[in-house]
Amino acid sequence: MDWHQKQENQILRHAGDHRNHTRSRTHDLSCKICYPKKEEETDERFQLFWDWYQEVTTVQEFSGKTKEIFKEIMSKNQENIIEGKENTRINALIYSMRYQNNSEFSITDIRARIMTMTAISEKFNRDMDEATRSYKTESSKDNSPEKEESPKRNSPKAEGSKINEKEVMEIQKELEKLENQEIEKWDTSTGKTIDDDEMERMRLELELRRI
């Protein structure tokens, strides 16, 4: 059972408690009864995030909690976000929205995309089309044959700044192990650090070095 199926089961249990007028023991950050959307001015940064997020996932709707968590994350130091210190909040952000399916991504994949785009868009203060084009252009250059044959590529500095193929394979193996673990219930009130912080930092480092 993947994260999306688990989330749907959680949503159904939570909705059943609402119908039965009983206090729910199932926490659902995406519940619009518990977290109704507030009438307020449009947050331009959140709108940029939402427009982009709809393109990379099958997200369908968000709750009032989504904007609150997003605002919290954007107020944090960008280095902390990149280093994985805000992973708990990012997971809460993901689970505060509802999706058509899992987009064929794991939670780790989605979190890495959010962290990477937060960095290259300067916390969604930069035009997203421009940020995306910049990311794709730099990624293309990094993978080009010309760059592979460049003397700079073989310099000690360049070699030290890249993760080699063996390390990438090791990271992928670790990520596969993480996918088989149980998904925890995320609560923004806790400061608990998740177990795969170190692996996520390596994954994000790999992504950011392609920028």
| Weakly predicted, low-confidence segments | 147-163, 178-195
Order of helices and strands: HHEHHHEHHHHHH
The computed structural class is mainly alpha
Question: Measured on Cα atoms, how large is the radius of gyration?
Answer: 19 Å
Number of strands: 2
Structural features, described:
This protein has 211 residues and is mostly helical. The chain has one domain. 57% of the residues lie in helices and 3% in strands. It has eleven helices and two strands; from the N terminus they run H-H-E-H-H-H-E-H-H-H-H-H-H. A two-stranded antiparallel ribbon has the order 1-2. The protein is globular and about 50 Å long. About 17% of the residues have low confidence.
Q: Care to give the gist of this entry?
A:
With 211 residues, the chain is mainly alpha-helical. Helices cover 57% and strands 3% of the residues.
Defining traits:
single chain; 211 residues; mainly alpha; two-stranded antiparallel sheet; globular
Give me the secondary-structure topology:
Layout: H1 3-19, H2 44-56, E1 59-62, H3 64-74, H4 78-82, H5 87-95, E2 97-99, H6 107-120, H7 128-142, H8 145-148, H9 156-160, H10 165-179, H11 197-208
Antiparallel strand pairs: 1-2
Helix pairs in contact: 3-5, 5-6, 6-11, 10-11
